[in-house]
Fold each of these.
Amino acid sequence: MSRRALASALAAAFTAAAGILVAIVIAPSAHAAGTGTGYLRTSGNKIIDSTGATVRLTGINWFGMETDNKTFHGLWSSNPWRSQLDTMARLGYNTLRIPYSNDALKPGAAANSINTAVNPDLLNLSPLQILDKVIEYVGTKGMRVILDRHRPTSAGQSALWYTPTVSEATWINDWKMLAQRYAGNTTVIGADLHNEPHADGTNPNATGACWGCGDTNRDWRLAAERAGNAILGVQPNWLIFVEGVSCPSGGLSNVWDNDPSNDESCGWWGGNLSKAGQFPVRLSVANRLVYSPHEYATSVYHQDWFDEPNYPANMPALWDGFWGYLYKQNIAPIMMGEFGSTLTNPIDKVWLQELMKYTGTGVNGMSFTYWSWNPNSGDTGGIALDDWTNINTEKQAILQPYLIAPVGGTGPTATGSPTGGATTGPPPGACTATYTQTNAWSGGFQGSLTVTNTGGALNPWSVVWTWPSGVTLGSGWNATVTQSGTTVTAAAPTWSPSLAGGSSVTIGFTANGSATPPAAVRLNGATCS
């Protein structure tokens, strides 16, 4: 999991409202509206699609493939993997950033901690085969995927893009393999080359990632050019996402040397792009570069700027200096790859509100992928709660006005890998829904909803409906029934994940409020009559 470290002059001793849901209508066109059509490219500070329409990526991170599990966390839960992606899309996240480590790409790598009773289709699949299936399904939701080389090994992050056991050649060759694997699949739009390059060592004995220093062993800008151009040689249609460093020198300042010339402005790991204007990343294919800073709150580390007397009014100028100027001066697009907080500190809530305001509203705003979907991110928590089903409505309410929901989808797509092992899941089927009220009392009622699948077989199945404000779920049976805002989700139980064509499922429930039939009933995204 990412650890975002401060690298300021004082960090030499640092060791490393209510849930608003967006209903998504599944349209036949490929990547219409929300994430555009075809492959993406850049134009000034904008990301545009193959037709020239502006696209804003408003996504989320789902981590785990970079850890010892070598696959997505939460696959151990009772919520099927497709249902989790359904929720992300329904909430308005149009892009999925997927962290991985090179360990997960090795021949013989094995994924673990998967609840195969809930996810039987993942049984005995390799990490890459699971990735294939997730990418395929993401495409059906109209979402896009950014792959993120998060760690060289599952043991942890590294200041540089290579380590004694994972060479630069391995880093680049694995990227080329992934580019070839997903060639022709427009769901996968690009490569986040290396997660959070950062300073190491104390100046003048810096050993960490610098920007523009000219040392080929440490200059992250030059390494990003080498890797980015190698990827574009295989897949010229991908966007290349380049993060910043923490200190441009690559080392922490020695605050005890009384030499102010050695001091510099430092920021979060991966968050400092202050030298990118002077030393830009030069790629062999034009209009492919996106800068991708990280930005965090006090739940990660209490930076000095949170204590300024004019906080939060001081923050826009700080963001301008680290990375926002690239967008404001029309140099390149910004896609904020990670930002998040537990929101337990009131300072953090203000931070998130002001940061989102800074990115701008509507399609012309800066792109972002929130950290994270996972509730088990130790220093930020997630959008999902600990059951991996319900959501953190406080966070979602702040993000919601800035989300541009995915529309449409590609349908099942090939991975481009003859040995990828990807399987095409059944498409959402048409359905009918019948509701029966079985009981009522003062302040509540009981009912049953029977949904018949009139399309192809589904595994797993998931039924969603809406109630008006004031009607709340009491209990449910024959499914895992949960509510967020006015939307109710009934996920397939572990003992009956499949729903064959022509078969029905009856979901029982009690509810509080005025007796109201379920409305806008959908089965795996298809609207029921």
Note: Confidence is low (pLDDT under 50) at residues 1-32, 410-429.
Amino acid sequence: MGYSSLSELRPLRLDSVAAIGGLLLALAMLPLQLFVSQVYLDTVPFVLAIACGLYLVALYQQDRETTMPRLPTSVSMALPSVVLVGLGGLIVLTSIQGERTPVFFGLAGVLATLILVQILFTSSRDFNQRLLLAQIVLFALVFRFTALYATPGYIGIDIWTHMGFVDSIHAQESLSAISHDKHYASPFYHLLVVASSLLLDVPLRLALYLSVGIVMPLSVLLIYATTNLLVSARWAVLATALFAFAGHVANWGMHLIPTSLGLVFFLGVLYALIRVMRIEYTIRDFSLLLLSSVAVILTHQVSTFIMLVLLLAAFVAQVVFIVGPFGLTRLDTSVFRAKKPVNLIGLVVFNFGMTIFVWSLTPYRDQSFLETILRYFRQTLEESAGFLNIASGSAGASEAGAEAAAPTLLEQLVPYIDVLGFLFLLGVTFVGCLYVVHRRRAEQSVFTLLLAAAIMLVFVLVLPMFGIRNFIPTRWFAFLYAPMAILGAIGLRTFARNLSPGIVVTCLVLFALIYPGAMFLAAESNTENPVFSEQHEQLAYSEAELAAVDSIGELTGSPDGDNIRPDQQLHTDHPYQTVFSRTGAYPSTTTATVPDGGSADHDYVVYRTEQSTDATYFGTADGPGRIEQVSQDRLCSPDQATVYTNGEVTMCTPSPAS
């Protein structure tokens, strides 16, 4: 292995300059850790530095002909059978244990690693992309549907509201049933579930799983179709696996809400957009792009905004290649085909115009949706925005409470375990971005992916550090993973081609071993039964907890929220309180306030055993809430009367004697 001498380096090559700039940026970000403790500030600089450093090593290595070790044919033929048997084992394991346990996620991580090993180390003669894609899709189906099977109700919070809307539309046979809500102007998800129920003659819950639930795992194939327009089948399959195994992507395959369907249509927009940039497209291809973008607008508002970011990135890429520094005559046709930039101004104007029009007519909190979000954004800028003013929800409150109580080693490690998979993907994405920024390899399609990922990372990582969370950054990750998976596959392809065999094998093996397991251990992949149950709230409920919601609703008569006095408001933990309010069982329900070391002081409370054994969220009297385990006597005082109990859930009210 040899390297170019300093006199042979070309410092004005954009990829080498960008890599050196990335190293300097990583160094400049390190002092921020002295001012605030935040998991991304602690980790992203190191990831950026490692990615840029490895890229520079690959860039100036003279040994360009890397011979990758390949699996023996017998092993390549046996591994698919091992994976299929293992998937059957996941189903049996869930059926026996009644839930997805840490053993389930451990076995899932091993199977996903075996899939990645097949992709990366199978010889060209034995490589079969159809068989590998089948394994990825089957894995995605099993991983998601075992969670749906083992959960008595629904997984997540918003799903209860949306299925309430679906039930109303189904009962009234009219969209006017939700005319008061913002989803009245974006009803595609709700209409799809109702139509599926009517066509298949099944209950609404099953219709949801047979429509949106099945579409979600199948949609990962759009990543393959998109990536295969840029690189060979091996790396397109790898991008598909990176996306399918991602935690937030899996989450929207289990928490089936309009965001889920919005993600599917977003992938359709991404595929159609890259397609029209890479081929001599026809009116059919452009029509697919137009229809997919309209479908996003009619499905979900946040998904629409993310799609507009993608289209804006594509337009900026067009401008860069028309008036910018990239000479298309120097394009390396062995990597990407030279093609005149596609004019997207009409598409961008149409989608922005239609979005503004629809949002102006969308009802939201006594105003239009557009007016409301602009007002909230202005208030945020005036009241809470500021550098390193990190806004936090329950997770941030949990960190604050943990600091006061001398956190254990596990409590300190869990936030880093949650983001480990994302950081691995982010690292190879940086490498992919450096690769495509070279003048000979730059073109509109890959620059669209680069700019889209960069802009979305600003919304996900940067704006929250300024106290701006109006754009709901947690909803962006699954969408962000689409360009990241494609660029990440290109980044790993760069390593495989340019680094020495020893370094390549080390990088790829570490990635295959750690990435899937880290993604599956992250909170987003196991919200129905968290692996770290003392640090993350469970966003699913047992049969007894759901029965208690119905029984308490019948016991109280499910009074209208306007008829409930403030002292009659029902208090319990978060997220359990959301089920009461979103199902209408007791509309005026909120999070109980439990002082540190003290007891709650509410008239009407609901206790469940989950509050004493696992992580649940409570408010505090003098600041943000926290995740804590609370005993029954701290929520239901001795002088209160027990009006309902089923062994797991207890409702306490003021005693008649008092």
Note: DSSP finds 25 helices and nine strands in the chain.
Amino acid sequence: MSTTPPDTRSTRVDTLLRGATAGAYARTVRRVVDDVASRFAAVTQPWSGASRRELTELVDGVDLDGPGIGTDDALHETADLYASHTVWFHDPGYAAHLNCPVAIPAVGAEAMLAAINTSVDTYDQSTVATLMERRLVGWTTARIGFAAGDGVFTSGGTQSNLHALLAARERALTGPDGARLTGAARAERQGRLRILATAASHFSVAKSAMILGLADDAVVPVGTDADGRMDPAALTAALAATARTGGVAMAVVATAGTTDRGTIDPLARITERCDEADVWLHVDAAYGGGLLVSPTRRHLLAGIERARSVTVDFHKTFFQPVSASAVLVRDPADLARTAWHADYLNPVEDSAEINQVDRSLQTTRRFDALKLWTTLRAIGPDGIGAMLDAVCDLAAAVHADLSDDPELQLVCGTDLSTVIFRYQPDGVTDAEADALVPAVRRVLFDSGRAGVAKTVVDGRPCLKLTLLNPEVTLDDVRRVLTLVRDAAHGILAGRELADLTAPPCRDVHPHLQRTSEGEPR
């Protein structure tokens, strides 16, 4: 085997973005943009419908250890693999998860920040970018109603929830003298910490409890009303039971936009219970955070200003590219509890420097705030809010449309933009309707023609639409629901034939011509 090191100079010189390659960068990005734009314009269904076997063969067929093929060929090959088989969230047939079409100004900002490659962990790496993010944090906390709040951008709602609960844990593990508990006292108290949340809270709450080293039974379920919203009376009872059994209520997690139903817990009444018990209230508004700029629905978040911390996902109802989220706190001291210092990064003696790594769980961190900044400047907060209102109005219209549908049965209401339903006309049993949910979803997904989600509500499997495209019309949704009906009809018909002891034979099939001898052709 040769021991001569490979000559990478030509590849390195041609590939790295710098002054000398600025022209090549412009040409490359222009070709990529033109290709992606043409694909957007040509989309006719949410995705290609290729099987996992077909996609695996395509992926495994690429030689990642071979010699380089050059930038143009590599991008062309990548587009044929990725863009040809991606899921297009802008297509009217996509209505599955909390994915949105993205604002064009944000996409432009994404290109800018990716090329410049700022890391906003320390001020000396980011300068004005840090100041812009700090301004946006202040803008968001003001929209929430925090008079002097703080926060930091994160990778998504899971990280935002984890960070908020970490801050809540550190507050709960602070002694009467204000010092951080250590040793046996800390371990003993940490074992008694409890998080109170409903069954509809995001799975990241339970995951955070595990990451934070809490007990296996640390997440205490709180009862809900018939619509799946946290019941304040049940919260009061759960807080009392926690104290009675020796637990310490570390935090209550309320949800402003549950993933399934899109409902909002009664925040004002919950804050009253938390204030009375002196318990940290975290509001997970990953989904419903866009209501902060809604011209007509901001009142649904009444009481959020009294929370201790809030999660907002801008890459959901602010129509930003992934990723863009933030954790916001009412009291800046709460984030300070989670700070960590390193001599090579953010030494204590430089505490006057604006180093956001003091606030963040991440060190290297993208300047994702630039996307929201640019969108706000392009269309204003009312423009974003109007788009959210449009999808909420659409969901209300779909609910009205299905209110007396003979086949598709609404399961529950929503405060935001979800529609949960089952295919169950007269004569279809509960068990048959249960079995249809994954089957219908799979048929639609495998065809590539529509994307719907499935979930479980009150023990029953359901189909779910999550409407986050303000350009989609009621007729577009009706077409998706027609596909649902057609798939269900076909599945039921197939099962009926399979169950027959004597299925129809070819010699009696009405569409087959007979020969003179009576045999089917």
Note: The first strand starts at residue 150 and ends at 154.
Amino acid sequence: MLRSFVACLILFLLPRAADAAETGETPGTTCAPPVKAWIAACADAEHLGLTAFDCFADQGSLTHVIVEVKGEAALRVDIARDGSRSFRRVGQAGLSPLGQFEDWNAEPEPRRRALDALGACLARDATFLASAAITPPDKPPTPPPPEVRPPGPPGRTPVAWPWLLVTGLAGAALGLGGSTLWRRRRASVGDVSKKDVASDKRFHAPPASVLLFLGSVVLVELWAIRAADADFFMPDPFHFIVVGAALVFVLAGFVRWPQVRRGLVTLTIAAPLTLLLMEWRLAEADVRNQHVAPSNDGLLRYTYRPGYAIEESEGERIVVTEDGLWDVPHVVPKPPGVLRVVVLGDSVPNDPSIPFRRRFPRQLEALLAQKAPAGQKVEVVNVSCEGYNTVQEVRLLESVGLRYEPDLVVLAYVLNDPFLQNGGYRRIGNSFFAFQFVNVMVRRKCLLFEEMHAGYTFDLVVRASLSRLRLLADKHHFQVLVAPLPLVEPFDDPSCLAVYDKVVGAAREQGFEAGRVVDAFRGEDHRAFLKPKDALDITHPNAEGHDRMARRLSELTAPLLFQRTAP
């Protein structure tokens, strides 16, 4: 029997070793030599401590350079090739200090002098902005196709639940088969122990089996204690598994056929350990989620890590802003003549498998710019964080989003938003494995979300948050649009439609505008909006889905945004 468990352990450790080999670090990209030469020349001429923090490109052409000023200034400045939206324009280029500055003229003298010095350098020479953006590594990685999801968000170990399931079944089969072959071999050479000979005892439980079973049960219960989250509201699966294994183990002791009895006993020991290994592996993937940092705010619990460079699809690289947003920098305070839309959401606006320019907040900005009256500019600020529920989204608006002085706030509601637990960990209740497995066990996912919206958590998380959002809107004079985003399930599913309507109704109770985004998908086959390499992901549509959502949101937001500013 011990040989069976060794084989199971080897089967689970091999995938981890393979993952470690496949996800080894590769050389990063750096700013091109012309950019570095300009920074060095500016540092010498103006006596500044300058370094290149990051470079950004669009189709191989340099668009932004973030320069870090050392010393007393302690400032990062975004140098943009197109300065139309910059804090200070120098020719066609522009400068924008990164951070929150209520009054730039009240900032310390070293900071203001550093920005002036960079402006002087940019006025003397801006030819570096026409150079290549970055120097590629010696062996550039081949970017995935636009619709292929990269191996999980940065810092997360790629996890495929089918491989885990197949590995677990293979381990159990190997354990049962190995035990049977070993017993037959011993029987063939006449080395059969007396305990395997049929006896008159009604209950058979060798001490070694009892000790192994108790050890597996203790390990599972210790894991349940370690993984416990006080905020979960769904059933904890570990206790049910332990009770079920104990019942099977006791019943197996009354089976008179040795082969069947040994198989059942092996299963009761191997199944809890298999589950434990799956939970441990999936939990490790979340622990290494390095672009997320803990927050001192008890409602937020976590945010994106400011300054963290996130590698995205198609070779894009986005640096988290200083206030923890996965977005391009925006000037604070809001410049005159600018209308701002703040999008509140979770991981859908921040899906790294969708090119940044094709995510619906970026497309919404372009579509609204086409509809804007003459002399008006529109900016869309993505105030979202993966795993957030409605409480966290409204709190992020209050702590960060209000700095951008929104004229309109769009709450991009996803049907898992009433989830009341730490969304930074991908689990249901306390189980990481259940989160991966639920899509296989439940055929109609809309029924799950309908049940979630029928309980107390909808009032606690969603209705209470909308009430708070009403107070913020009245105090800071912005409009609100609540827009439930569609699941990638049949778009005419009555359960999902009922949930969308319930959210719209709750929004209108607060006097907000509301509209269903699913209406832009009616009559379409939902499978056309699934990701080819992640067909079980029903909350994150592919790039074509983002196109549809952006067009629908532009139809809903344009009247609210431009009617307010009409003379």
Note: Residues 383 and 401 are 6 Å apart (CA to CA).
